[in-house]
Design a protein that fits this description.
This protein is mainly β and 142 residues long. It has one domain (4-141). Helix content is 6%, strand content 44%. A five-stranded antiparallel beta sheet has the order 1-7-6-2-3. The longest helix is centred in the first third of the chain and has 8 residues, at 7-14.
Length: 142
């Protein structure tokens, strides 16, 4: 699976079936860390806490289920691309084999907004997990 936006969530937003208030801070967005056991489908796996995002979440002394709250979300149009960025965040003492970062909206029915597939598992043993997006999380070409 490649990284990407959850198309079902974004289409529902575009068709005004749901309201996403990510940029102004009206919604609480979180970033959960998962190992490689989920087999996600960006079209159908729309809810954090439901299959496949109900198993394989990492743990640790500083990590809470659901992950860290994401702040400073911003969207920009750069040339012919929509670019999504956020403020850097950190979680202490994470343990497990990190493969996926799942960004989900805790305000709107636990909707998955974006999934970052790191391409392989990276072992963490009570280590900090630092996530930043200076160059943008995701870009969509028009």
């Amino acid at each position: 699976m490649a990284s990407g936006l959850n198309l079902t969530t974004w289409l529902a937003w575009a068709q005004a079936a749901i309201v996403l208030d990510l940029e102004s801070g009206g919604d609480t967005v979180k970033c959960a860390a998962f190992d490689g056991s989920p087999v996600p489908n960006l079209d159908t796996d729309t809810i954090y806490g439901a299959a496949p995002w109900n198993a394989g979440e990492l743990a640790g002394g500083g990590y809470s289920a659901g992950g860290a709250t994401v702040a400073g979300i911003a969207y920009t149009i750069e040339s012919t691309r929509l670019v999504l960025r956020h403020t850097a965040m950190s979680t202490a003492n994470v343990t497990g084999d990190l493969r996926y970062l799942v960004f989900w909206d805790d305000t709107v029915g636990d909707r998955v907004v974006f999934v970052a597939d790191l391409g392989q598992e990276f072992p963490l043993l009570a280590e900090p997990l630092n996530v930043s997006s200076p160059d943008g999380l995701y870009r969509i070409r028009r």
